[in-house]
Amino acid sequence: MDILESLRGGLIVSCQALEEEPLHGPMLMAAMARAAAIGGAVGIRTNGVQDVEVCSKITGLPVIGIQKEVSEKGELCITPTFQSAEPLARAGACIIAVDCRHERPFGDPLSELIPALKERLNVLVMADCRTVADAERAVAYGADLVASTFAFQEGKWGAEPSFEVIEQMAKLPVPCIAEGGIWVPEQAIRALEVGAWAVVVGSAITRPQDITARFVRALGTIKKAEDSL
After folding, report:
1. What is the per-residue pLDDT for 225?
2. pTM (2 d.p.)
3. Distance (Å, rounded) from C-alpha 79 to C-alpha 218?
4. Domain, as residue range, for 8
5. Which among 44, 96, 103, 225 would be 20 to 30 A from 112, CA to CA?
6. Contacts of 160 by beta carbon, 8 Å cutoff, 6+ apart
7. Domain count along the chain
8. Cα(43)–Cα(61) distance, rounded to whole angstroms?
């Protein structure tokens, strides 16, 4: 079974923690990834060379590798250059996700980067997009799959997926991965129903501080309502 077929209809769990977060570190991310694998995940998405290596080895699942980089201006870009991607491939990533937003703040030209990753590293390239136009452009450059990574919107308790964007991306000639703002199983099911190939869930599974914050916000609305009576 090829990599994309092994992901079809399944759950990919994003195991990430930034340096300032309590769960940061390859040992903790490896444990998180192993727990996700035991639960039935078909793939792992993770950030940085060390985390890619340990998650790949401990789970044996396909790993989507990314390298988050931040500019001096505080602008975030996901795997912006060939130089940032090459170590991920050596560490075991079989898919590398690249920031393909039209407004991506820095990095190698996508028209050069995507073909180079495929040809020189022999990996699949996933385009992290905000709009359907982003995805269309990435496909034209050779992306093997597209994702709605930046297409989430703010809802009552926080980020929510944009099913309209997912549905439109799913009409493109490559698989669409639903990612961004998925918090409950019903949202994951709907993503597949509108055409997503697979679903990525991160914060709702692997970021306890975000999970806690959503509950706190929800309970806070009840308290405010009671106080207003």
Report:
1. 57
2. 0.93
3. 34
4. 3-227
5. 44
6. 152, 153, 154, 181, 183, 187
7. 1
8. 5
Tokens found for residue 58: 């401990």
The letter for the amino acid at 32 is M
Other CB atoms within a 10 A radius of the CB of residue 88 amount to 29
CA-based nearest residue to 136, from 159, 160, 165: 165
* Burial environment of residue 24 by CB neighbours within 10 A (0 to 12, 13 to 18, 19 or more): middle
Q: Is the pLDDT of residue 157 over 80?
A: no
Q: Is the separation of the CB atoms in 182 and 204 below 8 Å?
A: yes
Burial 46-85 (b: 16+ CB within 10 A, else e): bbbbbbbbbbbebbebbbbbbbebeeeeeeebbbbbeebb
CATH number, residue 86: 3.20.20.70
Is residue 63 within 8 Å of residue 45, measured between CB atoms? yes
Which residue has 């991920």 as its token pair?
88
In tens, the pLDDT along 43-72 reads 999 999 999 999 999 999 999 999 999 998
